[in-house]
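User: I'm new to structure prediction. If I give you an amino acid sequence, what do you actually give back? Let's try with this one:
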Amino acid sequence: MVAIERSGGVTVVRMGHGKANALDIELCQALVAAFDAHRADDSGALVLVGQGSIFSAGVDLPRVLDGRRPYVERFIPALIRMFEAALFHPKPVVAAINGHAIAGGCVLACAADQRLMADGAGRIGVPELLVGVPFPFVALEIMRAAAQPHALRELLWGGGTVVAEIALRQGLVDAVVEPEALVARAVDRARSLAALPPQAFALAKRQLLLPIAERLRAHAAQADATMTDLWAADETLARVGAYAARVLKTGQRG
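Assistant: Good question. You get back a string of structure tokens that encode the predicted 3D arrangement of the chain. For your 254 residues, that looks like this:
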């Protein structure tokens, strides 16, 4: 599900969960465990990458449809915990976006400190509202921090996905690289960030993220309770089912 290796003092976490690295409870928990273990070890930075041509195609919608409210009520906290583990990780995190990063996969990538995307056919974006589901509070905060202000509303309201060069202009990624060089470039970037004084880096990161942390403390509990109810509502699940029937065959998720 998650393979961990070391490369020159950098930990590489490679998602390998089915064909699409779809986000379910188990993958979310495995990623949280990887981030927690990295906090305690002597590796200076972490690179997150997917397998094949997909970084992560987002939430496992068939699992949501099968499990309905009981599954949603377990899954949403696991999803939120994973986003927070990536966003607030004290060491440098670099996302090596090897292909499609859709919806929750896009949010996970955007939680990284630096994002490199392979040039090619991979697409990235947040079609949550097209799927019919609202954003967890932290997910929307991640997107607000990553995307250029002029692009954010179009990303949210339009719900489209874009190729790497457009993602670069929108702020979703920091660099576009050749696919065969992606992981090596990401490791190099992670190593350069790890060379910064660790305590100073961690403090600067906390300071940068302080407005998000404060908004989460003030508003996330109530907003996410409402969001969970919306995810589990029969009307929402019907929209999710209709979306899944239309587009899952293209490799997108939610």
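You can read the tokens as a compact description of the fold. Here is one thing that stands out. DSSP finds ten helices and ten strands in the chain.
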